[in-house]
Design a protein that fits this description.
With about 750 residues, the chain is α+β, with helices and mostly antiparallel strands. The chain contains 21 helices and 27 strands. Helix 11 runs parallel beside helix 20. The two termini are about 50 Å apart. It binds dioxothiomolybdenum(VI) ion.
């Protein structure tokens, strides 16, 4: 899924037409909720921590073969010939495929594949495939790729391409009206998703019917993609994903190796498993594009913004870069705004959406700029943000926000971190040996309204058991648990009483687990099904009690009459009277997206300590205040925030893919050389939820959280470093050399 498709999904533009009419949130019940909004342990937690949960890599089928893929060592080459015969002649090899025709355009692109009885034989066979390449000029350095004389990555097309244009008002007029005009450039590097579990697919054919176990964020998307790629009906494909160790965007949609597994399985008549290596994961399945963002801002002495402009160069290899403009266009009240963004193509695997694509980069740029503006005005950075608070989208010129709890996030976050402890003037930190402390904060906006038309079935069994069936997937975030919480809440049960079935494309349709869509899509569909089931149960109870359904109320594992509370019938009797299992279809209804803007908001606060001799940074504290509507399960919501902040910390301090300009291959394609934050780097973390229930959005008033938890974290760290040192680093990751370089800039100035 490329950036544009992904953003359409996140914005809800690809949503199927819902059959149900918009339903108002039943917010009045909030105080009565027993499970919703509380902390429920993961219903599958025991399975996962004891190693019993089956991940795709754990799948073993009878007669299963191992598939392996040979990849190009060249960043650009003509594939002159591929000779599979020596590989095919090796005993134990059952199939070999040629995958490359003509040119390969990045180091890591598929060239050939084999299926063999075991891993060793498959590896030996790969080494026997004879490929003749004619190497061609290439460019992997995106700065160099901008040179008109650089090798052309896409035949006959320039490496530089327009990505996004936006304009409102008149920025030149705005700059003229300003008391202070500041122009600053910020850079963000390439981050790799690196989920704990690498990609894996297992394919099996049976009588023309294809079943694929896949580590994916989109069982329905992979089903449809496989059907297209193989030229078979979608009805003949089932995609299953039971448990998964993360994705962050690199497992959205169909992957090439999955098609290869299906082809090898078809050719051999046996199941085939392909597992991507850590190196493949670093090279072939995407990354967050880089950005080079130049902002210009005009501001009055009192902090009122008069104009904002952004020129951005984003590099996404063979794919488009991310647009980083959403924050500058949307977050602050500003009548004049202009954006110009370009993609730079290189001979590198295509980028992919990565947790809040474009927004983490844009937040780093815009929010760093806001702090530099505040310093120039001698203003509190938080006050500057409040001064330019908007209540409508597009910088206060678009649709009104249905709800916006950002002001509450600012207040709660500032209080929790102790905002008054920051250095009133950046760099005025008291010396503690070589260490200087600072506090910083940053704002986020994201989508997270969910997808109308999402389906979930609820099944009541006469033995009293309850099942939820939905073709969503739990990518590690706790989806099973929130589904059980909503069903249990509605039917007067405990979450552990509810059986949740998900991760299968034969189940009712649900969108990608991405774009912060899952909870606001799935929870309302489950709620809808459960409310319908409750109505039916009340009907049956009314018959048993010889009363009117309207007179029936739910009690503790029994139904009772409002008019006579002594008249009761236990749940068990009511369920038994159903006689057969009964299915209730739930649907996530539509919301008035043409009247209101539905967004999520948040404010991240960080406290850091910077060593002015070594350039090392330690994050001491994080506070995240999130407005994601009603929180369904506090425990898993807090987990999301912990993970998002840690990824933001990691990107701010450590993560950066390095490519070797001479060969086009990565220099740090493993987890030893590519640095990711560990528990040793984890600060004290305080997640806060302001719980602004959005009555217009869905029947629970809930919004997404996965990406909002990540958006502003790196920027908050960068601003805390600025507050500690009095000089901004302006580039992430803020490695020790970059910190020391910033300090030298400061010295040169004074
Ligand atoms: Mo994502 S980039 O929402 O997995």
């Amino acid at each position: 899924m490329d950036h544009r498709d992904y953003m359409d999904e996140a914005r809800g533009l690809n949503a199927p037409a819902p059959q149900a009419a918009p339903a108002a949130a039943t917010g009045a019940e909030k105080e009565d909720f027993k499970h919703i909004g509380k902390g429920t342990n993961r219903v599958d937690g025991r399975e996962i921590v004891t190693g019993r949960a089956r991940f795709t890599q754990d799948i073993k089928l009878r007669g299963m073969l191992i598939g392996k893929i040979l990849r190009s060592p060249h960043a650009c080459a003509e594939v002159v010939s591929v000779d599979l015969r020596p590989a095919q002649a090796l005993p134990g090899v059952l199939a070999a495929l040629k995958l490359a025709e003509g040119k390969v355009r990045y180091a890591g692109q598929q060239v050939a594949a084999v299926a063999a009885v075991d891993e060793r034989t498959a590896e030996k066979a790969l080494a026997l495939v004879k490929v003749e390449y004619r190497p061609l000029p290439f460019v992997v350095d995106w700065q160099r790729a901008r040179d008109p004389n650089a090798p052309q990555v896409r035949d006959g097309k320039p490496n530089l391409d327009k990505l996004n244009d936006y304009s409102r008002g008149d920025v030149e007029k705005g700059f003229r009206e300003a008391d202070v005009v500041l122009q600053r450039t910020y850079r963000t590097g390439f981050e790799i998703h690196h989920p704990t579990e690498t990609h894996a697919s297992v394919a099996e054919w049976e009588a023309g019917q294809l079943t694929v176990y896949d580590s994916t964020q989109a069982v329905h998307g992979v089903r449809d993609g496989l059907a297209r790629a193989l030229g078979i009906p979608a009805a003949n494909v089932t995609v299953i994903k039971k448990y998964m160790g993360g994705g962050f965007g690199c497992k959205l949609g169909l992957n090439e190796h999955t098609v290869v597994a299906a082809r090898l399985a078809r050719e051999t008549g046996r199941p085939v498993k392909i597992v991507l290596s850590r190196r493949d994961n670093a090279v072939c399945v995407g990354y967050r594009p880089s950005s080079l963002q130049t902002y210009k801002a005009g501001v009055k002495k009192d902090g009122t913004l008069t104009a904002l402009s952004l020129v951005n160069y984003a590099s996404g290899g063979l794919g488009a870069g991310d647009s980083c403009a959403e924050p500058v266009v949307d977050v602050y009240k500003c009548p004049n705004c202009k954006v110009e963004e370009h993609t730079v193509y290189t001979n590198t695997g295509a980028s992919r959406a990565m947790r809040a694509p474009g927004h983490t980069q844009g937040a780093l740029g815009l929010e760093s700029l806001m702090d530099e503006l505040a310093a120039a005005l001698g203003m509190d950075p938080l006050e500057l943000r409040r001064k330019n608070y908007s209540t409508r989208s597009r910088g206060d010129t678009g649709l009104p926000y249905s709800t916006k709890g950002l002001d509450r996030c600012y207040e709660a976050g500032a209080k929790a971190i102790g905002w008054e402890r920051r250095n009133a003037e950046p760099g005025a930190a008291a010396a503690n040996g070589p260490w200087r402390r600072g506090l910083g904060m940053a704002t986020s906006i994201w989508f997270g309204a969910g997808t109308p038309g999402t389906l979930a079935d609820l099944v009541l069994y006469p033995d009293g058991s309850v099942e939820i069936v939905c073709g969503t997937q739990d990518i590690g975030t706790g989806t099973r648990t929130h589904m059980a919480v909503v069903a249990a809440e509605t039917l007067g049960l405990e979450p552990k009483d509810v059986t949740v079935k998900l991760g299968n494309s034969d189940y009712p349709w649900a969108p990608i687990s991405g774009g912060s869509l899952t909870t606001p899509s799935v929870a309302p569909a489950v709620r809808d099904a459960a409310l319908k089931a409750l109505e039916q149960l009340k009907q049956v109870a009314a018959q048993l009690l010889k009363a009117e359904p309207a007179d029936v109320v739910m009690g503790d594992r029994k139904f009772a009459l409002k008019s006579d509370s002594d008249k009761t019938v236990p749940f068990a009797d009511v369920y038994r009277a159903l006689r057969r299992e009964t299915v209730f279809h739930g649907e996530r209804a539509g919301h008035p997206g043409n009247e209101y803007a539905f967004n999520t908001f948040g404010a991240h606060f960080a406290e850091v300590e910077v060593n002015v001799e070594t350039g090392n940074i330690r994050v001491l504290k994080f506070v995240a205040a999130q407005d994601s509507g009603r929180i369904i399960n506090k425990l898993t919501a807090e987990s999301q925030v912990h993970g998002g902040l840690m990824q933001g910390l990691s990107a701010a301090l450590f993560e950066e893919r390095v490519l070797d300009d001479a060969t086009g291959n990565p220099a740090n394609a493993n987890l030893g050389d590519y640095k990711i934050a560990t528990m040793a780097d984890a600060p004290e973390i305080t997640p806060l939820f302001v719980d602004v229930v959005d009555e217009r959005l869905n029947n629970l008033g809930t919004k997404g959280l996965g990406e909002p938890a990540r958006v502003a974290a790196s920027a908050a760290v960068a601003n805390a470093v600025f507050n500690a040192l009095g000089v901004p680093v302006r580039e992430i990751p803020m490695t020790p050399p970059r910190v020391l370089e910033a300090l030298r800039r400061k010295e040169a100035r004074s």
